[in-house]
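HUMAN: Can I see a protein plus its fold?

ASSISTANT:
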Amino acid sequence: MKNLIIKIILALIIIFLAWKVVESIMTPVRFENEKDRREEIVVQNLKDIRSVELVYKNIHNQYMSNFDTLIAFLKTGEIPVVNIIPDPTDTTFTKTINDTTDFVNVADSLFGRRIDFFLDSLKYIPFSNGEIFSIDAGTIVKGAVQVNVFEVSCLYEQFLKDLDDQLVLNAISAKEDIDLFPGLKVGSMLEPSTDGNWE
């Protein structure tokens, strides 16, 4: 009877230790999968914001550092539909005639086919419980030329906040080894770039 109890206890200890080994392997794997899933969603949001900024600049000749203005622009702004035809009087076939034929709402033009897009949520960082992306815009001088720039960013700790703290710190540390910014961003206030740091 005593041997049976010892065997049962040993079996339970072996099962517990096996479970601990499996968990020690699977916890980081699950974290990486969730981190990648969240990054993909945040990157899509940053791409959406970049699209709005680029259209805003084309119309207003500057980027915008205010989400309320960008969202209002999405709701009420219009993009001209231009018909470009060759100039019939030009025998060199190099001149064109541009004719504005219609106007299309900015939101419909950019996101009309996206059923999961909500204009008012553009400024919020996914998975952050309502935190807002950091946004800035202005001008810098590059090569004696004044250039419009913008930057939109969020930190890893903002969209990974409810995950394992140590694994989040590890992800931030790994990112800092590659890029000085511990998160995701698009654009730059130092360079005339509209690239994201994930590209």
Notes: The beta strands are 78-86, 96-105, 134-142, 145-155, 183-187. The CA atoms of residues 111 and 117 lie 7 Å apart. Residues 37-187 form one domain. The longest strand covers residues 145-155.
